[in-house]
Amino acid sequence: MRWVVLLGLWFAPSIGDEMLAAHNAIRATLKLPSLAWSGKIAKAAQQWADTLVKDGTFHHPAKLAWGQNLAQFYRDEHIPDQVVYGWASEAAEYDYKTNRCGGICGHYTQLVWRDTKEVGCAVARREDREVRVCDYWPPGNYVGRRPY
User: Fold this and answer.
1) Residues in CB range of 137: below 8 A, 6 or more apart
2) Which of 32, 82, 132, 143 has its CA 20 to 30 A from that of 22?
3) What is the pLDDT of residues 8-33, one digit of tens each?
4) Backbone angles phi, psi at 19, to 5 degrees
5) Which residues of 80-99 are buried (b: 16+ CB within 10 A; e: fewer)?
6) Going along the chain, which residue ranges are E strands?
């Protein structure tokens, strides 16, 4: 657990606080509106993360009402900044001018989708495996549309 100082007081921010701050830091670099945290969406993300860990699988659900980013790690616990900045690193594959991706960039474009207003994230662990899920409302990544 990480501890931070705020106004001279030490506290341990929640995973949600850290995930939201990391998302909004990335969005701020593009002058995009900040996301708000949604407990309802976080609850759905937690249910999906728990399912993936329990089943030993890693995939998006067949039907999903919102956008979703997934990450999985083995052996080490990852801090929220690492997860979000990992998704954001896909920006190198995205060409805004042509609105094309030269590799994998869907995590990044969902993260910076201008019309997205809310996010909820969760983590589930089992033995040496960690799964992170972030769900977004409204979803992004519509073919032919620019993320911002």
Assistant:
1) 38, 41, 65, 66, 67, 116, 117, 118, 119
2) 143
3) 555 455 878 999 999 999 999 999 99
4) -65, -45
5) beebbebbbebbeebeeeee
6) 4-6, 9-11, 36-37, 67-74, 94-95, 100-101, 118-126, 129-137
Among 125, 20, 108, CA closest to 72 = 125
Q: What average pLDDT score do residues 74-90 get?
A: 88
- Residue whose pair of structure tokens reads 């620019």 in the numeric block: 146
pTM > 0.70: yes or no: yes
Q: Which residues contact 98 (CB under 8 A, 6 or more apart)?
A: none
Q: Tell me the β-bridge partners of 120.
A: 135
Measured CA to CA in angstroms, residue 136 lies from 30, 55, 116, 126 at distances of: 18, 23, 7, 25
**Amino acid 12: pLDDT:** 52
Phi, psi (5° rounding) for residue 11?
-150, 160
Whose tokens are 């509106």? That residue is 33
Tokens 């042509």 belong to which residue? 98
> How much is the pLDDT for 16?
86
